[in-house]
Amino acid sequence: xxxxxxxxxxxxxxxxxxxxxxxxxxxxxxxxxxxxxxxxxxxxxxxxxxxxxxxxxxxxxxxxxxxxxxxxxxxxxxxxxxxxxxxxxxxxxxxxxxxxxxxxxxxxxxxxx
Amino acid sequence: xxxxxxxxxxxxxxxxxxxxxxxxxxxxxxxxxxxxxxxxxxxxxxxxxxxxxxxxxxxxxxxxxxxxxxxxxxxxxxxxxxxxxxxxxxxxxxxxxxxxxxxxxxxxxxxxxx
Lengths: 113, 114
Known about the structure:
The structure holds 2 protein chains of 2 kinds.
Chain A: E1 9-13, E2 18-23, E3 31-38, E4 45-50, E5 53-56, E6 61-64, E7 70-75, E8 84-92, E9 107-112
Parallel strand pairs in A: 1-9
Antiparallel strand pairs in A: 2-7, 3-4, 3-8, 5-6, 6-7, 8-9
Chain B: E1 5-7, E2 10-13, E3 19-24, E4 31-38, E5 44-50, E6 53-56, E7 65-68, E8 75-79, E9 88-95, E10 104-105, E11 109-113
Parallel strand pairs in B: 2-11
Antiparallel strand pairs in B: 1-3, 3-8, 4-5, 4-9, 5-6, 7-8, 9-10, 9-11
């Protein structure tokens, strides 16, 4: 199992770019990196998934260096509504049993006006 | 398209009573998962259904928990008898593919055992 390490909390201001880094030193060859977002009183919501280099969608970008031992979730121009907990997960996209999905403690992101 | 729904949103019961949680996955999603977060802890996997079959129930804490998915549609999670340590938020998720594919989570059921 690839364990992940991320900062417990981060603070930023509206309009700033926020980068949350996740370490996963034991990532396996077949593992993908997935980020989820969770608002209070809601279930986690899928944000983005990637394997290597860079992935971008309408919500965020995910940067993965060549050694894949870390990844960075980038949120451009955050707003107050981006205040949430962000989870970095690592696992084999196709064959991992769901029981191997580890959410961890996540990063509590607080955005201020 | 409707998302994953869970009922009830909040349940308060006494120790020793029985509670049944319900999850309605997104239509067409064969994979259904139950997770829970107990107070101050991380979200933990409970079990995984593929259609009506239990694919993996390694996360179920003990035999007081019983999950069913008759007909491969909605699922129920029954706790009988409930204990104080069962308090927490129970999430249901569904997905098209297995494994680590994008999962769609419901809002959760907050269970309080007093």
